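pinned: reference chain
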Amino acid sequence: MVSVAPIAISAMTLDDVNGVQDVERASFPVPWPASAFRHELTQNRNARYVVARDGDRIVGYTGLWLMVDEAHITTFAVHPDARRRRIGERLLQRLFEIAHDIGAEWLTLEVRASNIAAQRLYEKYGFKRAGVRRRYYSDNGEDALIMWTERIKERAVRDRLEKLREDLDAEERE
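pinned: its structure tokens
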């Protein structure tokens, strides 16, 4: 049996922007430009971004902004050819850790109404639908669902995250 290195999650750097752009272009009809990521990394003190690496290749990324006491997930993507490997779960776990570490009370995000796979992932991690932003997406006018977690410092939330992390770690050891 060949040993496969686990996916590594680390802080995004300026050197990562080209790899992030590859994932961005493969994932979204209207990708963020590289300049937006560079701005986030160098100018936005409220932003935190991370990447997922499979060896030397960036296969996913995500980020959030701390806005008062909420951590707003601004972007989240896994390259289409790397999906269904639970990379999104690893990234989401890291966002919960970051949000906790920077003092956020909740996580929130918008997700396309048609993106059922992403909605299921977010629901698995305790996000609940809280509203709709009509015609939110500029490429096709699709609605966005607004989702929020419970307070991330609540015992039930921490217990859920721990159980999900244990499941991920056990799968990785197999």
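why pinned: The mean pLDDT is 93. The radius of gyration is 16 Å.
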